[in-house]
Amino acid sequence: MNSSLQDIIKKIVASDKIIIHRHANPDPDALGSQSGLAESIKFSFPDKKVKIVGSPVGDLTWINQPEEVADDFYQDALVIVTDTADTPRVSDQRFNTGNYLIKIDHHPNDDAYGDMYYVDTTASSCSEIIVDLVNASNGQLKLNTEAARVLYAGIIGDTGRFLYSDTSQHTFEVAAQLVGHGFSHSDVSQNLNEISLNQAKLQSVVYDKLIFDGNGAAHIVITRQMLADLNVKDDQVNSVVSTPGRLREVLLWSLFVEKEDGTYRVHFRSKGPVINEIAKAHHGGGHPLASGANAADTKEIDQIIAELISAGKAYQDSTN
């Protein structure tokens, strides 16, 4: 059963040591919710020891960077995992070694892990939930400028700067509350908007080599050689995931990014057809319109493409 925000607040207030995790290959919402919660706790309770951990953050260091945490720090610690639907995706598997574990998330709760969890799939982002947590605390948790900045980054990252359909009136109200803390929201937007020249060249390759499969479905396979030729690092590929969606002819799409071991990271996006069930069938998951998965080889890629085409056709048949 979903716990209440008040239950989580009580655990935070009662804990002297708190370690906050998020998912691997972090996006702005993973980092924003993680560091926004950490900053709020540290600002509100200066005597508490609060750490954030996880894998490298690529070109998102302007949001936060992980800290070194010794194994023994987990003893008697409260561990909170933000923006992470299932345990295999948690960055740093020591999340399981603390005294108490809380999950805070906005993805479908297919993996209800933790001693306590709070999941709100109607929220635009996990960062939005963290603001709700602060607001529900009756002043026990507070926001400072830094917490507001990174939480705002998380919200506009997961809403595509308020483009996506899960952006609600409440999302705008929360964003306005955060902007009221005095950071430069234009700087945050600019940081999210900027890409390197090599990333821009990769976007050009995506447009040039995108394959249209019928019924509004499209895909591209990005190989190790393509990344090497353009001098683009793995953690910089996220900048092109939304690129096909700018095309009027594209309804749903997938990017297959070859990893060093020869398998593929799969990025799914959609303007209407539900695609997270496809992701779940291929060792992944996520939101109905934005998900990730994995493909072992080109045979599995072909299978995913067929499923994508089928989903597009079913959606068009149902809306015509």
From TrEMBL:
SUPFAM superfamilies, per the entry: DHH phosphoesterases (SSF64182)
EC number: 3.1.3.7
Keyword Ubl conjugation assigned: no
Superkingdom field: Bacteria
Family annotation (Pfam families): DHH, DHHA1
Domain DHHA1: 229-309
Example of a GO MF term: 3'(2'),5'-bisphosphate nucleotidase activity
DDH domain location: 17-155
Keywords: Hydrolase
Protein name: Bifunctional oligoribonuclease/PAP phosphatase NrnA
